[in-house]
Amino acid sequence: MPLIKDGQFVEDSWTVLQQDDEVPPKGDVIVPLERYLSDTDELNRRVGRVGVALENTADPDDIAPYLNDIDLVALTFPAFTDGRAYSQARQLRHHLGFGGELRATGNVLADQAGFLKQVGFDAFEVTPNQSIDIWVKASEAVTLAYQRGYDGNRKTRDKLRPSPLPQHPSDCAAVAEQSAPA
Amino acid sequence: MYRYDEFDTTFVRQRVDQFRDQVDRRVSGELTEEQFRPLRLMNGLYLQLHAYMLRVAVPYGTLNSRQMRKLAFIADEYDKGYGHFTTRQNIQYNWPKLPDVPNILDHLADVEMHAIQTSGNCIRNVTADQWAGAAGDEVEDPRPYAELMRQWSSLHPEFSFLPRKFKIAVTGAASDRAAIAYHDIGLRLTRSANGEIGFEVLAGGGMGRTPMLGVTVRDWLPKDELLAYLEAIMRVYNLHGRRDNKYKARIKILVHELGAEEFTRQVEEEYKRIDAPRVMPPAQELVRIKDYFAPPVYEDLPDQSPELARCMSDDADFAQWVDRNVVAHKQPGYAIVNISLKPVGGVPGDASSGQMRAVADLAEQKSHDEIRVTHEQNLVLPHVRKSDLYGVWQTLKTHGLADANIGLATDIISCPGLDYCALATARSIPISQDISRRLGDISRQRDIGDLKIKISGCINACGHHHAGHIGILGLEKRGEEYYQITLGGSGDETASIGEIIGPGFSSETVTDAVETIVDTYVGLRQDGETFLDAYRRLGPNPFKEAVYATH
Fold first, then answer.
1. Domain range for residue B525?
2. Percentages helix, strand, coil for chain A, rounded to the nearest 5?
3. What distance in Å separates residue B28's CA from the closest CA in chain A?
4. Domain annotation covers residue B1
5. Do B140 and B285 fall within a single domain?
6. What's the complex ipTM?
7. Residue B26: half-sphere exposure toward Cβ, Cα within 13 Å
8. Is B159's CB within 8 Å of A141's CB?
9. Which of A20, A49, B253, B497 sits 20 to 30 Å CA-CA off B473?
10. Residue B281 has what DSSP assignment?
11. Total structural domains in chain B?
């Protein structure tokens, strides 16, 4: 499937393996969660990066202990109307602090692109006939977001019209730090 | 009232442009109907039996005169000169053409309105007490929180493809006029033991095929944690709500299957992990929103109006109207005016463009430019001087808007039913019209007293029949419409689900059955006892016996 990252088609270096496929000696592989959990050490030791594909019924907490070793998590949309992976993505990014590639697979449409980026996806497997122009246009159709604390480059109200006052204790701390003598 | 700033304006315009592009792609064939369907549904556009239907959001049921006039303009320009106010405090147009819809949305954006998320499996228009800010029994005005939730739920990146639609209602009053127990999430502003105001949070209420009342998941939530807590509920639902069966996909089924305790545990568990300060708006944002809902500048008036008293004693029709349609305002000398959209034999909730303009003018001149839409499909002028009531009534009368039947037998909620709706299994409007004509004599209605009759044309229960004192559900068997009757439902603070009394009735006999039920109540009631009170005392048997003995 064509892969989109940063608003353009890119070469996909990853090989997707099923539960019983043989693991190639090198190269980047994406394996199902069960495979990863049963062969964790072997997969982590080999040359090449490892990614894990989660069903949309899986609990991201199941891979929490391994996230330092995992370079990619693939989440799936069996139908574009099935939105479970939006919440899985959010949990991976925000509860578990996952910083690797978060890939959207399955039924991924241009009209969802903005939302997908906001919950933390940064790679998108799309259908072969997807036009990149339509993808980019659709993903940038709305540049603003009411929801605070989400990802992506949509601006929240505070960013459009910066507030003169520090908003949260953490911000106060940051202000104090910046103004502290070196 | 809330006013858009540059952010809101840009947001809504971008959404209109985005939808215009989606419509263009559909018209050109680039999008299939299957691909277009969820996109149009997220913008309130349904394909009904005869035409597209556009549902326009009226956030928590508040409008100003300019907005109402624009709704009238759209009715004339793009529809057949009328609109239909709905049980979600919205307005529907039944006859727009697809290529016109982006232009309609542009017109709406001109007056700070939109159709975002009035349909689809997302968070729908947040509803609120229609008397918010005017009623005397309020702990706090719920509208700033409703507005906060409107913004937060608009194009929510995580919760736009939920298992099923999601409805939130909020009230600030002890008397529940927003039916919060029947919502996916119901919120009630309430005081804690030490006097601090927060939210009681209910979840898992709903109507449809399996009616359920919401359960309290939090007795008291600090106000500034609202959005973070909602996020936790929504995430648990989005991840675990059933998607295998449309009829089991609402949050009520998840709450029921997990049990209230386990559901609450999962929500609280999720909530602990949410970085609340990151999600919640800064304090000054709520202050900014609240400023828009500051009370209007009232005149300092004596509570009693001699003009009102004189007009009531001179004009019996006016006095009856005041008795049913006017309720107390928290400000001395002012009143809340309820405008009935239920003329005897009319279509519940329909208003012509002329009526919309008349209400707009009255609002501008006599009600601090405010109008409310009620979930019972009526309109409200929330801030009218008592001394202006007679003039307001006379104007309403010339526009066919002075029916003195608020809360009476002909103040019927009805969904559009098979006359319009693609999902309906039976007609509901003609049944409501028939019942309305049968019980329409005003002195008879006044004698019957408070009575909520609610009619749905299919199991989805858009007509709220489960919450009707008398509920009617239209179904279809072997090509014949038939109507099931439930009794004892209520959507107020004593919420209950109506019980089916027995086999259904044909379209010819259902009105007779309703009349028999009403007459049975009149025969059995004790002093001052309402229909609902009598039913709760007597149970279903006397009603069943009367109905099935005679039909």
1. 413-550
2. 35, 20, 45
3. 14
4. no
5. yes
6. 0.93
7. 19
8. no
9. B253
10. P
11. 4
